[in-house]
Design brief:
Strand 1 (about 35-40) and strand 2 form a beta hairpin. The relative contact order is 0.07. The radius of gyration is 29 Å and the shape is globular. The chain is mostly helical and about 475 residues long. The two termini are about 30 Å apart. The longest helix has about 40 residues, at about 135-170. The chain has helices at about 1-15, 15-30, 55-60, 70-90, 95-125, 135-170, 185-195, 195-215, 240-250, 250-270, 275-285, 290-300, 305-315, 320-330, 340-370, 375-380, 385-410, 420-425, 430-435, 435-445, 450-480, and strands at about 35-40, 50, 130, 225-230, 230-240.
């Protein structure tokens, strides 16, 4: 039975449809040497310029983009290449080739959108004369066809697997006559009839998220236009990827991305394991009174208002504050800790740890309470001490909780609590404290550049989404625990 299933999987993986997809991917990669766009030179009216896809990959076009590969062209090419390699290395892969081909198709479509509205400033092509050459059209059609074919092939493969599964159930002979395997639609309909009141309770929450979380998403379009409140989202002038380019060309791009990643990395390696260690220590305490006292003391900072907390830190960190007095009494030079950029990250991570340590340990204490006590008894019978029990019973018992929280923490690596940053930082500490969120706040709210801030925030959200997907897949492989 195992050999038959393997042969069926192999034959499906190397089906003619998949071979056709590989040929289309090869056609797309070959098309980059063909003309992708053309038009009249912006400075010389009677001169026609023609650019191939390879020119955009090499940064050949004139204008402000000279020397820089076009990000969408690069994304489409890399996605197609990875999809082809993945289908060759792992012929049975289903979801990732679809994702990569969809990403490539989206990049190719947005590529010409960017050319159309940024031709004059970026590529020295007169805006009204820019046209799309047949090389780009061939690539887009091939990508779209490959995407449709791979989706159809996956649907056919899923149906074959289902028919094979139902056939194996029917041939077992253990089911009653006339047994019917319900479809997903039938299961949902039957469950709704039984528990319709529960679904009714969920309805207000669903409406809330549809109205306040998904409804405003159409406002993302202002990242691609020069938004003017009077003209509205769709009436403002379209500018393509101008704001994304402006961010990455600015001297603040590297600084804000670096600070965001560094602060989050320190937060991850220091503030994530600390609540786990505290929960394990509290779990080993025999004195209930002492345990509750420690819990109360560690919980209390979390309930202090963030504004009050930051005000306390600013006062304590000043030259005549608590920390300054301690340094003076110890004979050390007095330093304003929040006025010197090299101390900002330490102050931020230290205050974050102090404020959230006890609160974050609650969920791990709950996970520890759910571990079956018979496992500890069995470990004791086998001669395991407290340390061995922690390694082989306690940690495996709370590992699913740790994995889920780690996925969520990694998925927010590009996010830092901008409220706390804004309340603590100042121009003297921008070098180590200015993160993407605070930069977006200054450009979007203070300077009223809504389109620029939306573009930067969109980039930030896309990176976070990719990190969540990667962390979830890695966790599923390593710990067999994932969000989906």
């Amino acid at each position: 039975m195992t050999i038959t299933t393997a042969n069926q999987s192999t034959s499906r993986a190397f089906s003619p449809m998949r071979i056709l997809v590989l040929l289309l991917c090869a056609l797309v990669l070959c098309s980059i040497v063909l003309p992708y766009t053309q038009g009249t030179h912006a400075k010389v009216a009677d001169q026609t310029v023609v650019f191939t896809g390879l020119d955009f990959l090499q940064g050949v076009p004139e204008g402000q983009s000279n020397g820089f590969p076009h990000p969408l062209m690069l994304g489409a090419t890399v996605s197609i290449f990875l999809a082809a390699v993945l289908m060759i290395v792992r012929p049975g892969a289903r979801s990732m080739p679809v994702i990569l081909l969809a990403l490539a198709t989206l990049c190719a479509a947005l590529f010409q959108f960017d050319i159309r509205f940024s031709a004059s400033s970026e590529f020295s092509i007169a805006k009204d004369t820019a046209s799309f050459a047949w090389g780009w059209l061939l690539a887009l059609v091939s990508m779209s066809a490959a995407l449709i074919i791979i989706i159809v092939d996956n649907i056919k493969a899923a149906r074959q697997d289902k028919r094979r599964f139902l056939a194996s159930i029917s041939s077992s002979g253990t089911l009653p006559e006339g047994y019917h395997v319900r479809t997903t639609r039938e299961i949902i309909a039957n469950d709704f009839r039984k528990h319709w009141m529960v679904y009714l309770l969920i309805l207000p929450t669903l409406i809330f998220y549809l109205v306040w979380a998904y409804g405003p998403l159409y406002g993302i379009v202002i990242a691609f236009n020069d938004f003017a409140p009077k003209k509205g989202f769709l009436g403002s002038k379209w500018v393509g990827l101008q704001w994304f380019r402006e961010f990455f060309r600015s001297p603040f791009a590297f600084r804000t991305i670096r600070n965001t990643l560094v602060i989050n990395f320190y937060n991850l390696i220091i503030c994530f394991p600390a609540p786990i260690i505290l929960a394990l220590m509290l779990n080993e305490m025999r004195s209930v009174r002492y345990k509750r006292t420690v819990q109360t003391i560690t919980y209390m900072p979390y309930f202090i208002s963030l504004v009050v907390l930051c005000g306390i830190l600013v006062d304590f960190s000043s030259t005549d504050g608590l920390f300054g007095s301690i340094m003076k009494n110890m004979g050390l030079p007095v330093v304003n800790l929040l006025g010197d950029s090299k101390y900002f990250r330490t102050m931020y991570i230290g205050s974050e740890l102090w404020q959230r340590l006890g609160w974050d340990s609650i969920i791990f204490l709950s996970a520890l309470a759910s571990i079956d006590q018979e496992l500890y008894e069995a470990a004791t019978i086998d001669g395991a001490g407290r340390w061995k029990q922690t390694l082989h019973v306690t940690l495996p018992g709370i590992m699913p909780t740790i994995a889920i929280l780690l996925i969520l923490r990694v998925g927010s690596m590009m996010n830092v609590g901008y409220e706390k940053i804004i309340l603590l930082y100042n121009p003297l500490t921008y070098e180590t404290s200015d993160v993407i969120s605070s930069y977006v706040y200054r450009r979007g709210i203070i300077e009223a550049n809504f389109s620029f801030s939306t573009a930067v925030n969109l980039f930030n959200s896309l990176i976070n989404f990719a990190l969540v997907v990667i962390a979830n897949r890695v966790s599923g492989k390593l710990t067999e625990t994932s969000l989906w």
